[in-house]
Amino acid sequence: MTLAAWMLSVCAGAQAEPVLQGKDAFGSWQADKPGVVRLIRPQDLPKPGASPSVANATRVVARGSAVPQVPQGFTIELLADGLSSPRVLRVAPNGDIFVAETGAGRIRALRLEEGGAKVATNEIYATGLNRPFGMAFFPNGDNPQWLYVANTGSVVRFPYRVGDLKAPAKAETVVASLLSGSGHSTRDIVFTPDNRRMLVSVGSAGNAGDGMGNPPGGLEAWSKAQPLGAPWGYEAERAAVLAFAPDGKDRKLYATGIRNCVGLAIQPQTGLPWCSTNERDGLGDDLVPDYVTSVKEGAFYGWPWFYIGANEDPRHPGARPDLKDKVTLPDVLVQSHSASLGMAFYQGTQFPSEYQGDAFAAEHGSWNRSRRTGYKVIRIRMKDAKPTGEYEDFVTGFVVNDKEVWGRPVGVAVAKDGALLISEDGNGTIWRVTH
């Protein structure tokens, strides 16, 4: 998206209520509450180094009786607790909830009681996995035959019949090697609506592409032979979305320059994949914004040489002038260092009609900012299936004080009854939002 097109989309989706913009939109957790709306624009960004880069890790404490906050008219209730760092959530066609317990190397399956408010059955679906994260049922529709799981270094699949709560057989390897071993370890996975392609997100090995050296054969030859913006060396096939056939063949780079697309989702109205993205650290409190964006095949989103359009990373001065005018601008900019993770589009019937087609994204929370950001679930506003550029705080209340939090949102999914499900890996809980 060009800057002009981005501004047009923002104007088209403008709302009557006050929207925090400019420096007011950067803020911190203290300004967060359900209903707060932010609009961060490329022209609002400060210069690199306008504030120091600060290490400000949080301490996770026990939840106690704390309950997240939701907008007026909504209700939030605890659905499950005692889980081992639950991360991605996926809902099966019959309503069963599959949970990736990444650190434990397993997938858990939850079946809800009638009414959806309580867990009736809690089973371990599969174990012995290597940091499983993304999951996808294949083919799309009401009768999938497989459950695909994205490990940190591979993609595997289990035979699946609707209603299975335990894997009926051992995992079959579909993609034997996804680059791993250092850096970002999460891998998400979706299938295109026509079931012909499997998309897998792979985050970068490092923060800003330092130490990549020179590409094999030189930059000119590399640029001609590789997709736009493709990195090399230890970052080859990373900071990207990869495309495969469902059997793991026909491996290609689908999009590049996306530092860490943690969450992947298909927008139902358009069939386009979207990424919820962690951008780079080390340039100050308010650089670089995380983002949630549609992902276009063949597009380059800037990392590591540029950010948010043609802004050059000062750690790579003059390195890629050939790419400066070829960077695709992301759709929705989010407070820097929020750590935007899982995302899902809302298609349920339980929420008010204005939520139809909007997206939700889980903000895991900052460590590289003097004033804490993230630690919430946001609503990405759409108008006619196009982003307005604005986002709204939807679920907050996970922060205790400047140094402590009890919850770190990771996964979001829409339940069969239209409730919004949220996982957080600080205290190992899953929450259910209804209207």
From TrEMBL:
Pfam families found in the cross-reference section: TrAA12
Domain Pyrroloquinoline quinone-dependent pyranose dehydrogenase beta-propeller stretches: 68-283, 325-434
InterPro entries noted in UniProt: 6-blade_b-propeller_TolB-like, Beta-prop_PDH, Quinoprot_gluc/sorb_DH_b-prop
Protein name per Swiss-Prot or TrEMBL: Sorbosone dehydrogenase family protein
Organism of derivation: Bradyrhizobium hipponense
